[in-house]
Amino acid sequence: MNKITLTADGSNTLYNESIGEHYHSKHGALQESKHVFVDAGLKHVIALFPDQDISVLEVGFGTGLNFLLSAAYCSVHNIPLKYTSLEAFPLRSEELESTGYDQYVPHEIWEGLVNNYGKAMQQAVDIIPEQQLRIQHTYLHRYESASQFDLVYYDAFSVQHQPEMWTDEIIAHTCKFLKPGGIFVTYAITGKLKRALKSVGFTIEKLPGAPGKREMLRARKDHA
User: Fold this and answer.
1) What is the mean pLDDT of the chain?
2) Could you tell me the sign of the dihedral formed by the alpha carbons of 106, 112, 131, 148, in that order?
């Protein structure tokens, strides 16, 4: 069961009663998504790899906010986006539509997601031209792909509520899908996570966190 919840910046999130955690920061769902994933992740990767399509692997599609903001940014800047998201427990369509996120992105992107949400769980679909979404209805540890991505959005629930999503093994599994030079971003930062990433060839950056968090993590894959 998920309950709609207002966050401090005026945007909504959902509270997952079975996990015991919100999908986004209660200090501001919109601010967190923009700060961690769009600003520290997407914009950084676009600067690193100019003049190319951008491919994103997201762990935890959730409410779809990260995708919506990413597609909106790429659309404005004429950057083709291929976005693959892993979600073991997809929201129902009516839950997705209840978030009110239509006010933060162009109408055609919102309508494209709403109208193609179910289809995107079956195959890659263009939400709007050159903004492609594929939602893999699977557990992260079961995911396999020959694809290599430019950017990983790691947006699992916290280690306190979902410790199995933060083990050294699952972090290494996720990182094998990144290209050399690719970027891993997440809202969290712990000594254990930093060590796990360093052990598989990443350089770590500590960045200022979104409202309510002092720091966040960005890491670059230095080799295959």
Assistant:
1) 96
2) positive
